Amino acid sequence: MAFAGAANSEEKAEMVKKGAPAYRICAACHSLQPGVHLSGPSLAGLWGKKAASVDDYGRYTEALRKEDLVWDEDTLNAWLADPQAMVPGTTMTFRGVEKDDVRANLIAFLRRAMTEGGTVKVVKEGLVSERMASGPVPPELSSLGANQRITEIRHCRDGYFITTADGAKFPFWETNVRIKIDTSLRGPKKGEPVLLRSGMAGDRVSVVFSSLAEFKNLVAEKC
Q1: Each residue's pLDDT tens digit, 67-87
Q2: Which residues, other chains included, contact 78 with Cβ-Cβ below 8 Å and sequence gap of 6+?
Q3: Which domains does the chain have, with CATH numbers?
């Protein structure tokens, strides 16, 4: 098996290079930047560390917390092959990498990227772009224009009625409005929820608050 050879040798530059493109499947949910947590925790510096041990990431499942796992070639090989089989009860929505050689190359790349300072190395060496290393980080919401900063939001019957800082007023069907909270430094300023449009017709929107308390305080039930 390809992995067996890789597990008994030093990191091979060719395997690392081949594994870099496969990292796309990880980058959909993870960042290599320290402290940047997305759907999953940051992978920065996790090589050789205990699973479920990132202090400022609070969404690990109890199933993973209870496992005595350390991230290395063997554990990653089993995890990337089938997370559900390795840790029953995990909520990681990933079907696994079936091909042994693809998995071995990806692990070779991860070994390089997940060591201390590995993020800088893999970007500097051109293995992945800075954007891919960062992952799908949400947009900066603290400095949007007046047409996206919400000054009033009320709910009436089956709709949300939103007023933005430029004075514009918009009615939206409640089913087309996603209420979100972003407590990160990238999130909206306190007391200034923001409006993000999506959909072909722009009739689907996300309203992003800086905290749950803000949502409760700023949304009025009023017709």
Answers
A1: 999 999 999 999 999 999 999
A2: 85, 86
A3: 2-134 (1.10.760.10), 150-221 (no CATH)
